[in-house]
Design brief:
- It is a single chain.
- By secondary structure, the protein is mainly beta.
- It folds into 3 domains: about 60 residues, OB fold (Dihydrolipoamide Acetyltransferase, E2P) (Beta Barrel); about 70 residues, Beta Barrel (OB fold (Dihydrolipoamide Acetyltransferase, E2P)); about 80 residues, Beta Barrel (OB fold (Dihydrolipoamide Acetyltransferase, E2P)), CATH 2.40.50.320.
- The chain has 2 helices and 16 strands.
- It has a 5-stranded mixed barrel.
- The chain is globular, with a radius of gyration of 20 Å.
- The relative contact order is 0.18.
Length: about 270
């Protein structure tokens, strides 16, 4: 019997569902949605992560933060600790242009929908210098001014897999879904197979992933509930079967507010 105990222990370990380990990282806050307890944070020069955190209530765009977080099943993060360690004056990130108007671009990056003012930009790469077209992937360099981002440089880039993500409130249509953020409403085609919408309801917050066709149309490829960290950990297509045990958000707001160079796609 004693010889069987180590074997049984190993089998029991494999039977326990895997939980992503928490890790430490840092970045600059690009987007704050206090009502949803959600922030968008730079993770290197190109990537932006959506982070579920109660600390959203006191964070501001441009703050440099350190956080201890784990990755949820839908790709967002949940942070158990968030600490403000400084402030960035310039940020850089890559995203997909969802809308444009006079003096403003709306860009999706990692699901965060970010508004960038373009009235005073230094340079822009486009056919007529009028700004990049909708559904164009861009690298953005912007200054942080009073919770707003003012573009300094916007360059179009060649996307190997055109598409993106958007987080917002769900509206169900016939053959389509609409995801409404605080900046715009994005309509996505729903393919005939591969997407299960039965467990999602209108008005629910979701994270939707989409691809862009050659005709510019956007097609839904994955969708998951995103009202909170627990739902975000339940998988794509609204599969409500998961669990989340990391809800402690002991966020501190200490740290300097001066400019500090370094990580997070900013300076």
């Amino acid at each position: 019997m004693k010889r069987l105990l180590p074997v049984l222990a190993v089998l029991a370990a494999f039977a326990v569902p895997s939980v992503a380990a928490a890790h430490n990282s840092s970045g600059v806050v690009l987007k704050v949605d206090r009502s949803a307890h959600l922030i968008g944070v730079t993770q290197g020069p190109h990537h932006v992560s959506l982070v579920h955190t109660a600390a959203a209530s006191h964070l501001r765009v441009g703050q440099r933060i350190s956080l201890n977080a784990r990755t949820l099943r839908n790709g967002t993060l949940t942070a158990s600790r968030v600490r403000v360690v400084g402030r960035a004056h310039t940020v850089r990130f890559r995203g997909l242009v969802l809308a444009r108007s006079h003096g403003k671009l709306v860009v999706s990056s990692g699901g965060a929908v970010i508004s960038v003012r373009t009235a005073h930009r230094r340079s822009v790469s486009s056919a007529r210098d009028g700004g990049p077209a909708v559904n164009t992937e861009v690298d953005v360099e912007a200054q942080v001014n009073d919770d707003e981002l003012d573009a300094e440089n916007i360059q179009t880039v060649s996307a190997t897999s055109p598409g993106g993500k958007i987080e917002g409130t769900l509206t169900l249509g016939t053959g389509t879904v609409t995801v409404v953020s605080d900046q715009l409403a994005l309509v996505l085609k729903v393919p005939l197979t591969g997407i299960d919408l039965t467990s999602l309801v209108a008005g629910q917050r979701v994270l939707a992933t989409f691809t862009q066709g050659t005709d510019g149309s956007l097609t839904l490829t994955a969708i998951s509930a995103d009202d909170n960290a627990q739902q975000a950990d339940e998988g794509d297509s609204g599969d409500n079967s998961g669990d989340n045990s990391d809800q402690d958000d002991g966020s501190g707001q200490g740290g300097s507010q001066g400019s500090d160079g370094g990580s997070g796609g900013s300076r």
